[in-house]
């Protein structure tokens, strides 16, 4: 019941976040207009609170045009908020790939390390080609340079996200439910969300470092 309520709230909240970023809080970066709803589905109330705390200025709906743009830019200009944006961008792509691969590998009953590395490769590919590359292109980089910069950022981000997921898969899940739960169980989706949240915490220092040296630009 907890998992159903968690994801039920997350899906509704993700729909609102998508609407808000398209209609009201319109100056959210294009990549994060996609990334925030994905993360909110998995992080539920925590994801929604993060969006309101770090990405949505209070009263943004009363502003228009340049005033709204300046208000949003000022609100997200703090370094820690930029890094949260970088983490959301990272976890949305990686998490979508990891969870997609996990569904397949669990149905096939693969052993732990086979499942782990397949999820790593698929998560890396999702993050690199669907999220990092597009973000680098939007910043004006030519295709090959965007591919290189996106892959470089994704390499370091994915290490820490998958570390969090792997720790939950290897040590937490077996001690709570025994065998790896199948995709048609609440435990599968519950521990999947937990793994992504642990990965988000672990990848924050890595994204802080990449924002500081200019490899990623964060939310601003």
From TrEMBL:
Keywords recorded for this protein, A-Z: Membrane, Transmembrane, Transmembrane helix
Pfam families, sorted: DUF4396
Repressor listed as a keyword: no
Domain of life: Bacteria
Domain DUF4396, first and last residues per copy: 80-216
Regions crossing the membrane: 7-28, 34-53, 83-104, 116-135, 155-173, 185-206
UniProt key word Cell membrane: no
Name of the protein described by the UniProt record: DUF4396 domain-containing protein
Species in which this protein is naturally found: Nitrospira moscoviensis
């Amino acid at each position: 019941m907890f998992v159903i309520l968690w994801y039920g709230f997350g899906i509704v909240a993700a729909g609102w976040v998508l609407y808000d970023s398209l209609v009201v809080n319109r100056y959210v970066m294009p990549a994060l207009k996609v990334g925030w709803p994905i993360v909110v589905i998995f992080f539920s109330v925590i994801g929604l609170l993060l969006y309101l705390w770090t990405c949505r200025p209070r009263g943004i709906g009363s502003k228009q045009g340049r005033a709204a743009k300046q208000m949003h830019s000022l609100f997200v200009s703090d370094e820690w908020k930029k890094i949260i944006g970088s983490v959301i961008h990272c976890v949305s792509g990686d998490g979508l790939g990891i969870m997609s691969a996990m569904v397949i590998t669990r149905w096939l009953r693969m052993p732990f390390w086979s499942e782990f590395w397949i999820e790593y490769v698929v998560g890396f590919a999702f993050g690199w080609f669907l999220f990092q590359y597009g973000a680098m292109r939007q910043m004006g980089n030519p295709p090959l340079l965007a591919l290189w910069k996106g892959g470089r950022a994704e390499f370091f981000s994915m290490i820490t996200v998958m570390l969090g997921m792997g720790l939950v898969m290897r040590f937490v899940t077996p001690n709570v439910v025994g065998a790896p739960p199948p995709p048609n169980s609440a435990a599968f989706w519950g521990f999947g969300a937990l793994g992504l949240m642990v990965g988000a915490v672990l990848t924050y220092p890595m994204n802080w470092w990449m924002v500081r040296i200019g490899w990623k630009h964060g939310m601003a």
